[in-house]
Write a structure and sequence with these properties.
alpha/beta
Length: about 170
């Protein structure tokens, strides 16, 4: 049984955004990020689905953390893989890709992993909202504001960057 972690009354919310990718090494990075987020007492928010979203959710859940999934469908229209089995709080938006606004503006910090257009939109929306973005092998961004993205090469670097960002908030 995982060690129980007490979530503070006003916890920090950390978003882990990425693709439905199934590459084992990327999934493992997402799982480790979710675990580290939970062990620090933060709440994890993801898109609540498969791939990296599921892996990050699993890591946080198994470490005793709280996982919120921002889902593209509504409750009456099930979508396979949504929510994944590790989501504690499912937010059914019925907004499809429009949910990316919630994914980008809810967290105190967003960590982007391997992804494509959906992850790019979340990064862009986060930058516009002033949400700090950490990129661990995330998609390349060359638009205005992209210099604010903190690029890291490992899970350990991402967690250290997260600690620094949240210490300033």
């Amino acid at each position: 049984m995982p060690e129980m972690i007490s979530v503070p009354r006003r916890p920090r919310i950390v978003g882990v955004m990425g693709s439905h990718a199934e590459e084992p090494e990327v999934r493992e990075a997402a799982r480790l990020l979710g675990e580290a987020i939970a062990r620090r007492g933060h709440v994890l928010v993801t898109g609540g689905g498969t791939g990296l979203m599921r892996a990050a959710s699993e890591g946080a859940h198994r470490a005793g953390g709280l996982v919120i999934g921002i889902l593209p469908n509504d409750r009456k229209r099930p979508l396979e893989g949504y929510p994944n089995e590790f989501v504690d709080i499912a937010i059914f938006t019925g907004m499809s890709e429009g949910r990316n606004v919630i994914n980008a503006k809810t967290p105190h910090c967003l960590i982007a992993l391997a992804g494509s257009a959906g992850t790019l939109s979340e990064i862009a929306l986060a930058l516009r909202a002033g949400t700090p973005v950490i990129s661990l092998n995330g998609p390349e961004v060359t638009c205005g504001g992209a210099e604010a993205i903190r690029r890291v090469a490992s899970v350990d670097e991402a967690v250290a960057a997260l600690d620094e960002v949240l210490a300033r908030k």
